[in-house]
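User: Need the bound-state model for nicotinamide-adenine-dinucleotide:
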Amino acid sequence: MSDKAMDRIQALGKQLSPSSTSVEDSGIPPIKKVAGKSAGPRVGGKVIIITGANSPLGIGRASAHQFAENGARAVYICDRDGTHLEAHRRELLALYPGVEVHTREFDAADEAAVRAIVDDAVQRYGRLDVFFANAGVTGRPAVFTDIDGAEFLRVLDTNVTSVFLAAKYAAPAMTKTSPEKPEGGGSIVATASVAGLRSNAGPTAYSASKAAVISVAQTAAFQLAGTGVRVNAVCPGLIETGMTAPTFEAARARGTERRIGQLNPARRAGCADEVARAVLFLGSDEASYVNGQAWAVDGGLSAGHPFSWIKRKSREEWRAHIEDALEKKSRNELSRRLQYILRSTEDRTGLDDVYPYNISEDMLQEGDVAEVWEEDHENEDGDEDEIEVALDEDKAVGMESQAKAGNEKATNENGERNTNP
Ligand SMILES: NC(=O)c1ccc[n+]([C@@H]2O[C@H](COP(=O)([O-])OP(=O)(O)OC[C@H]3O[C@@H](n4cnc5c(N)ncnc54)[C@H](O)[C@@H]3O)[C@@H](O)[C@H]2O)c1
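Assistant: Bound-state model below.
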């Protein structure tokens, strides 16, 4: 190596050596930090309560692991269903021997039970640091006209009252100080959903409940001003958990699982641990300046307007495809996908009142199809691939009245309107 090259390396080495970049030398102030090291245990010594933690595939269980792995002193795993809680406890203790794990079976919307669990944490440890209010149910996947007020309120009770109670009892407990916790404060994290941000990602009661969860988080955050207690919501998109398992199983059974999640920019569904990582951050002091927020963890789904990947084939290709399906008498499969069959025809012909009507397999005959394309629609339950079909105008008019007649019949027979889109 030439002398010149050696000199340059030595000069670079000096520039990069710790002494030449020290704060004192440079006059640059140190970075002000509220939280401890981000590389170390991120919730060291904290006491944490998690509801909805029984489900083996669930966000609650995955979060318990993240908190335990990151140095929590104690984790309470709670659920109204206790089937797997003991197994989860044993697993957590085996993986993270430093943590104390308590299991509790109660309804997260039961006020006395929520108060009792918070009291238990305070009596046992003198502190509560994180309450992850995660328990939730979807309710029936029915259109809103098909459920009654009691059913609507049941979903709200589990999903919203539970979060309200968590905030109500956890917040004062989090403000308690001790020699070990000289400053009061803590983090309440509630599981909302992308369904709470905008429509078309879940049934009405579920979506309304999740919007309410976000509102509870926002209003509580303000009412807790100055206490050091933060309240945030996470809004998962489509995550494979116990709640959505049937959707994933059905997709696997029909070989369409690769289509799940295709409508978000990540082009896939999420897993529980991906939500748990966000919950860990929000629960930790690293999120000390994140308050009153609704964070989507959805692969980007809620970042844009709903869109469809329209895979256009040539008219001839699609005609051949659908005629082939009809010929092979696989109409059941076809009709399953034809719920929105007239939507495109509606645009083309100006016919209205067509959209809500299901088209039965008997209505489509060989040769009726003028144009067909495939379109994806997605909601929290998974994506639905549909074939949209444009028919010639005469045929569309005929099908509309046929469908209307069918719906009216259904109304008379059942005493209720068939509004299933
Ligand atoms: N999976 C998704 O795609 C998705 C998307 C958005 C939001 N979420 C929300 O995530 C949260 C966790 O659900 P998950 O996806 O892990 O589903 P999951 O079904 O795997 O877990 C939910 C857990 O909540 C428990 N639970 C239900 N009602 C309860 C009650 N009243 N009291 C106590 N426990 C109760 C269940 O027993 C279950 O163990 C829910 O609030 C859900 O609405 C899920």
